[in-house]
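Box 3.1 A note on notation
Throughout this textbook, protein chains are presented in two layers. The first layer is the amino acid sequence; the second is a token string describing backbone geometry. Keep the layers aligned when reading.
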Amino acid sequence: MTTARLLEQIYTRLLDHFGPQNWWPGDTPFEVMVGAVLTQNTNWQNVEKAITNLKDAGLMSFEAMAALDRESLAGYIRPSGYYNIKAGRLQNLFAHIRDNWGGDLAYFLSLPRERLREELLAVKGIGPETADSIILYAAGQPVFVIDAYTHRILFRHELVDESFGYYELQELFMDNLEEDVALFNEYHALLVRVGKEFCKKSRPNCAACPLEGL
């Protein structure tokens, strides 16, 4: 079986089993971008609490949040964990957009994919997964987001070995699937779902997994 065919079968099985995941939760591209930073090293429930704090305070806009000092911002996002570090990363991102793109978030997110990735990776505290999450979910540009679940699932199904890095895994998907925002969005969400519920780091439930037998 070709790699492309196997990736298609994985996607079909997961979609049939779980149904559409309706990712990424967020009312605006800015909110999605903020969520991509806040979700580093925490679960989404904690991020939602932080975002609710910001919304309740009327701060869910680039202008309002960029005007906050670090201590104030850290207080609002405290539920997301590592709040001082994340406040600094958000401020680094806001400063980059303000200083280099005149604070025009829409224009920034409309940059060509590779240029946008370069810009995001130039921001201290923004790594490949966060950058690609912003590109896919906030900018609506086709790029496949890789995370620990993706590596674990592909390794256990003998598509990759342990040495595969972020960009090698990303190439595997992008070379074998049609570049489509909706497909990449749904596929990533489904991999996270099966990783959390079945393909766990310890004590995986292979017998009940929708990918059993592949």
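The mean pLDDT is 96. Residues 3-22+144-197 form one domain.
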